[in-house]
């Protein structure tokens, strides 16, 4: 289980304490004379000079790689890297680079601009506020117009919103808006499709499941040996069925009723479920969570037997919590679930910071 690295880990990488030489500083007179000597020596024996340079480059590359590792945000769950930020009421944008997509776009973090697809779960500003900036930034960087999926009931309003920004800024904003509702399917790329599912928030909302398309040998051919299958294939016979395999499900904001909807079965068996746990302790009741259209972590504890996912990424904690509160609550939930439980803590403070 890899857990999101916190801000405290972004300090100078400890494994490369010699990073200082790579920081550009004016050299002292002593250093200058050393460098001049090195240069003179290099002219005398260029092979040792080149090997010194090559060592320095190697060190710098190692340092940069280490720094990247330390700076890398997000988590890797079941082979899927997921990053982003989700703070209840402030901002949610969950990015899955390998699917080129982001779920919701509360404020448009820079990393979201590279993603070709955005899935909007509800029209609250902490989930949709960054959309105009996202579309504009794609244009600014000459990236192809994005495809943005919205529930059908907000499509017209979102179109008008983008129109207003076109008018205000006198700019072209190119975007393909796709209305997609629960039960419908859209092919994003050759091997990926998306389907929305129903969630329950205080305004209309929906989640999304992304499926990979896998080929499976048709039942009637499973008794054949390898050569026979190969011959059938060469004859032009269609020997496989397309199987949809749920990879990632994202609920957005929802009450725990979502766990009981039989139509949401795929979301609860995707490899990774990304869901919300806005409230984490006794300071807010389950009733309070329900009243505001959210889930209390205590409810997830009760519904553990409904979760068949391999991993659960918890998001959307209230900003009242710090990283330690979140980790403690997640570890309590972990003891109740067989799925791996990981909290997304980017955007939260540590009580030590
Ligand atoms: Zn929210």
TrEMBL record:
The lineage of its organism: Eukaryota, Viridiplantae, Streptophyta, Embryophyta, Tracheophyta. Coiled coil: none annotated. It comes from Lupinus angustifolius (Narrow-leaved blue lupine). Residues 114-317 form the Metallo-beta-lactamase domain. It comes from the Eukaryota. Pfam families: Lactamase_B_2 (PF12706). This is Metallo-beta-lactamase domain-containing protein.
């Amino acid at each position: 289980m890899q857990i999101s690295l916190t801000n405290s880990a972004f300090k100078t990488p400890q494994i490369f304490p010699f990073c200082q030489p790579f920081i550009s500083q004016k050299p002292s007179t002593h250093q200058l004379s050393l460098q001049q000597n090195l240069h003179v020596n290099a002219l005398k024996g260029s092979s040792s000079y080149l090997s010194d340079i090559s060592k320095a480059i190697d060190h710098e590359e190692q340092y940069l790689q280490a720094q990247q590792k330390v700076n890398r945000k997000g988590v890797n769950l079941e082979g899927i890297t997921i990053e982003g930020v989700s703070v209840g009421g402030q901002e949610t944008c969950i990015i899955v680079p390998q699917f080129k997509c982001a779920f919701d776009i509360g404020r448009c973090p820079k990393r979201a601009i590279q993603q070709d697809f955005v899935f909007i779960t509800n029209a609250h500003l902490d989930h949709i506020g960054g959309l105009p900036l996202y579309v504009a930034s794609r244009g600014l960087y000459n990236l192809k117009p994005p495809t943005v999926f919205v529930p059908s009931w907000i499509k017209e309003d979102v179109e008008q919103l983008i129109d207003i920004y076109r008018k205000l800024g006198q700019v072209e904003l190119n975007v393909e808006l796709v209305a997609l509702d629960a039960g419908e399917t859209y092919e994003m790329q050759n091997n990926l499709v998306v389907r929305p599912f129903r969630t329950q928030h205080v305004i209309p909302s929906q989640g999304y499941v992304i499926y990979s398309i896998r080929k499976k040998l048709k039942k009637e051919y499973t008794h054949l040996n390898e050569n026979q299958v190969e011959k059938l294939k060469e004859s032009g016979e269609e020997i496989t069925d397309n199987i949809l395999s749920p990879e990632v499900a994202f609920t957005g904001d929802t009450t725990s009723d979502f766990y009981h909807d039989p139509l949401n079965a795929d979301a609860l068996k995707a490899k990774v479920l990304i869901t919300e746990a806005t409230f984490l302790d006794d300071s807010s009741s389950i009733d309070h969570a329900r009243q505001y259209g959210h889930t209390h972590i205590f409810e997830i504890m009760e519904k553990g037997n409904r979760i068949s996912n391999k991993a659960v990424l918890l998001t959307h904690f209230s900003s009242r919590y710090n990283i330690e509160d979140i980790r403690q609550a997640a570890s309590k939930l972990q003891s109740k679930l067989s799925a791996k439980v990981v909290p997304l803590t980017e955007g939260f403070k540590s009580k030590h910071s």
